Amino acid sequence: MSVLQKETKAVTVKEKSGLKAKLFDFGVKVVKDAKRNKFIYLMVLPVVLYYIIFQYGPMYGLQIAFKDYSPQLGFSGSEWVGLKHFSEFFSSFFFWRLLRNTVLLSLYSFIFAFPAGIILALLLNEIRGHIFKRSVQTITYMPHFVSLVVIVGILFDFTSTDGIINDILGFVFGIEPVAFMREAEWFRTLFIGSDIWQNVGWSSIIFLAAMSNIDPSLYEAAKIDGAGRWKQTLHITIPGIMPTVIILLILQIGKFMTVGDEKILLMYNPTTYETADVIGTYVYRKGILESNFSYSAAVGLFKSVIAFTLLIIANSIARKISDTKLW
Amino acid sequence: MAYILKIRIKGEELMLRQVKLKTFSSTLVLLMILSLIIAGCSNNTQTTEETGEGKSVASDSPKPEDVGYPGELSYWVSLDANVAATSKTLNDVGVYKELEKITGTKVEFKHPAGEGDQVTEQFNLMVASGNLPDIIEYNWLTVPKGPDNAINSGTIIRLNELIDQYAPNFSKYLNDNPEVKKMLTTDEGNIYSFPLIRGDDYLMVFKGPIIRQDWLDKLSLERPTTIDEWESVLTAIKEKDPNGNGQNDEIPLLLELGDIKGTGAFASAWGNTPWFYNDNGTVKFGSIEPEFKEFITTMSNWYANGLLDTDFAAIDTKLRDAKVTGNQLAALYSYTGSGIGKYTGLMKEENPEFKLVSAPHPSVNKGEKAALGQKDHPFTGAYGAAITTSAENPEEIVKWLDFAFSEEGHMLFNFGIEGESYEMVDGYPKYTDEIMKNPDGLPVTQALGKYMRSGYGGPFVQDRRYIEQYAELPEQQEAIQVWTDSAENAIKMPPVTMTADESNEYASIMSDLETYYDEMVTKMIMGDVSLDKYDEFIATLEGMGIQRAIELQQEALDRYNAR
Q: What is the ipTM, given to two decimal places?
């Protein structure tokens, strides 16, 4: 009781104007709330600390994108060079190719990989045999737990000139062996294809969850109205999972420019750079292998700015055309 | 499953509700402010340390006779694959066990994981973190901005004065070999490492074309010496099934881009080399000279006719070994040791007829020599043990490193432990059967790795008597002779160094240029890009600044010659 009194006093005494007052009010509210729900705050603390230390803390280092950073001089000691690294990147020989590859790979994974999970979930939803449904689910989401290095290793084995895929192509269709991993035009197909294979089961889980959340009475009503399974899917299931789909889509757009860089690093080689080299791998080569940290930070920042802009645009579009939104 | 699903649904609902919370964004603002405060507090206080340049020999520095070996030191060095096969650290290797007995110095080895790019990555991150061991063994000529900058920015220290005072053996060697001293001193006059020095011309040639003699015999062919002869030999191998399995699966030649760029493999037949070379004091870049087009044209013909391995652009040791031991590959560009020696050893049981021999570096006209073959300088920069600014007792460490250049250390690093890995026979250190015919069946390279560092390299002077025994097969000894005799090597660039600014500019030109170059050359050879585009290729190289890169190399060469 006395605590509450003190706080209300504090609020009335310290009348301040504008932003300062607002911030102050906010602070008071938080303190008040924290006292009431201290265990909940305690539970959220590790997460908050994680974000501060590992996500926001490193942002301090972003300044090296505008400096000629040398580790010995440190962040503050290095010389400011303004937008030098950005202009160097924009005029770089590989700028357009990197941008094109990054955007195309992202786009393809939107068009092909993202709907794959939804389609699988819709199909699974229609299956009535529980044992069959569960085994399909287990089988399809298993590859998600296999390490990426192993997946790419398998990919190399399968697609090598004496691998199983070429054996089948040769045996059944009489096609000459194709060195898939060394042909630039095959890279995107292999990349997206293996991604779907690895992750389709996993990404379908969240949609299945959303589906089981749909009110069964809707289906009953539709059945009475004479809707078949296809119509039910079209008019009940899909609209029912739409909010989830939109949220996931927006989140996906936030990652737009980050296209599985680790996987590309494992998969590419100079003969496939033409289609495989993306901003992320370029940053790795420049920054880590050539220790050109500033340049690589500038390129990375450019990528993040684009992704952030896209996220905001996507969210505001979603806001306009539906009620679902991230904020 | 149903249970898990239920939990997921709950989580899903929570998530949706949470993101709608209005306070979300304001919390975000608060967090950002907090993080800025925290980041501001942990401000990077690291400043440039004293570089130690010229200051290490102040008047109060200890007298040489007072300096002993260090009690302990930390040592960062990449672990050679031949050592990694049997030992986890260099502490387990004979030479360092013995060294610890002699000097009493306890060494803590730090080995980066992996090889190639992975080592580069770990090296760069270590230097950036500022958390340095006492000694870093690395090729300092390849570090970003060069060795002078590594000294000026406070990563490693200048050793000239320390070597004069505390490294009598090494400084005697340098004074006796002024040419080596010139190579190892930077333009600013710094000596920054105890490097590997190849003590004899015979040790500097170890790579060239090798070919299956047994297949040549089978098809009654001569060892090829010119490009035309190579073409007819390779064609015969392609068509006449020398491995006798009834299938047309022979791969005539594996030629890797790294060798083409590095030592002008096959390309030097046309009179220069694709990369930078020294034409009587003028730096040139061979790929923009007319000769290179002829080379590329020939190679793309060879590729189209199935004479080149289709995997040449993406090959690794495992794949290469499999092609040789699988009786498919007829010729490749490889080493005396881990080429001829290794494969002959591996195939001895399975195929007693298997015989790999060297072929001379090819030339265009018969009787001429190739312009360049693989031939190292006595000093290449590799295995340079440098002392970092973190070392507290550089005098002692210098003394410790100097031991390898003493008579006793020389024998230890080259031949290992007397009575175990070698015996003196009439004044000649002869490797024992433990090395040459290892009872556990280890190949010679790995057995060497268990005891000493002569098999790959390290900060010491490599002894000719090592290679005389290591290259024990007559084919290996012949190879060294054949490769030495068939290349001019007059155009080879010396180990030049650039200033930090030059090196920065050079790197920013060359990293994109090299990526483009590798792709285009690979594609032109493979026929993915038609040779009609050749002029475009040259124009692009020009546009990317190749002339400026040549200028920078020229300046570095001029300074080198003026040393």
A: 0.71
